[in-house]
Amino acid sequence: MENLTYQINDKEHSVSIKESPVFQHGKDEILSSKETDITYTQDWYSEGFTEVDFLNEEEFKSLQEGLSTSISKIISKDLAIDTEGFSLESYHKFVKTDTDHFKIVSKTRDLFATDFNFPITKLYKRLSELVGFELTDINTQTNDKVHIIVRINRPGSNDFNPPHKDIYEGVDKKSIIFKFLNFWIPIAGVTNKSALPLAPESHRLNENEIVRTFDGGTMQGNKYRVRTIKSWARESKLMRSAVKYGQVLMFSGHLIHGLAVNEETDKTRVALEFRLFKKEK
Ligand SMILES: [Fe+2]
After folding, report:
1. What is the CATH number of the domain that holds 266?
2. DSSP label at 153?
3. What are the pLDDT digits (tens) for 62-115?
4. Do β-strands 3-8 and 237-240 pair in parallel, antiparallel, or remain unpaired?
5. If you measure from the C-alpha of residue 197 to the centroid of ligand 1, how many angstroms do you get, rounded to a whole number?
């Protein structure tokens, strides 16, 4: 087996899993519960995700412009490319090779709240209000501070990771289920051909219905730390989030998501991605 086929909004996508670790069913257990999933008390728990209004027009514009300026500065400084006329959606017209793109991504992959020309920590407060409990960027189970990822996905590229659950690494390596919520904020080029694909309700499935790798994953020749999920309840269907600019997509760390193929032909997609933990009293 060298290829896997998934459906995103009913369209088939075939990807190479050459040299992937082996795929196996999980144990007879359901990992998401009142004790292990901090989204359990949310009114959207049964679906596993929600899209909610979050920034007004002015705030969104300021966030988008701030990011555009930061990325354009990295491009001109690190690649010595003239960024006259740069916009996030046209990123692929400035950064044209994989080598150059990976140089930029190595800088934008791990940002902390303090790296933004924008009050990200204020946003954490607002997100806490949305979920009704206090959120923190410190992993309360390890004391590590979490990163904010600026995901840049060029049109028609392999800049996506396999369908996965964020909790699996902790489960497989440390037998710990980290308690966090995932946030995904659309910044540019986010459409129904590029938004993040999700598998609604997949967080509530028994692990014996999930076929996946248990030690990283390989897709389209790229190696990932996340485990590749091949199928769930004998299906491999994902649907793209309908999240709009100014909204935030929130989802359980137990929900299957990924394979964010950018099917736009001339738009780079940019989104902010991060996790937040429930602050223990
Ligand atoms: Fe993820």
Report:
1. 2.60.120
2. E
3. 999 989 988 999 999 999 999 999 999 999 999 999 999 999 998 887 776 666
4. parallel
5. 11
Distance from the alpha carbon of residue 78 to the mean position of ligand 1, in angstroms: 28
Give the pLDDT confidence score for residue 140 in this predicted structure: 81
- Spans of the chain below 50 pLDDT: none
Distance 122 CA to ligand 1 centre (A): 23
CA of 84 from ligand 1 middle (Å) equals 33
pTM of the entire predicted model: 0.94
Tokens for 163?
């369908």
Per DSSP, the residues of 6-27 read: EEETTEEEEEE-TTPPPPEE--
Domain count, the chain: 1
Residue 13's domain spans which residues? 3-278
Residue 194 CA to ligand 1 center (angstroms) comes to: 16
Question: What is the Å distance from ligand 1's center to 42 Cα?
Answer: 20
